[in-house]
Design brief:
By secondary structure, the protein is α+β, with helices and mostly antiparallel strands. It contains 3 helices and 4 strands, in the order αβαβαββ. The longest helix has 14 residues.
């Protein structure tokens, strides 16, 4: 699913009010982290991750890798905070604004 700018803006607004539920430190990204993030995305749809100062990896690179491995969308990366979204199959909580139909 490709997000529109309107949908991305809507999710950014929702993300302002949530706290990070994962942190990446010196171990950076591990298979266990990825599995836990995938599980959290299925339950919550929208999550925030904090990259600690002792993590040597770039937050944008981490966000891209996590999104690819969890089949989610990177909503935004600001400083050391990453926001991810993935529509849940079972626990649909967030109703995104509809994308406009393209003119024919």
């Amino acid at each position: 699913m490709i997000m529109t700018s309107k949908q991305r803006a809507y999710l950014k607004g929702l993300a302002m009010n949530i706290d990070p539920i994962f942190q990446f430190g010196k171990n950076s990204l591990t298979p266990e982290n990825t599995a836990a993030i995938a599980e959290a995305l299925e339950k919550r749809e929208l999550i925030k991750i904090h990259v600690l100062q002792n993590c040597a990896d770039d937050p944008k690179a981490i966000a891209a890798i996590v999104a690819e491995r969890t089949r989610s969308e990177v909503v935004q990366v600001i400083g050391k905070k990453i926001v991810l979204y993935k529509e849940s199959k079972d626990h649909k909580k967030i109703e995104l604004p509809k994308a406009r139909k393209e003119a024919k």
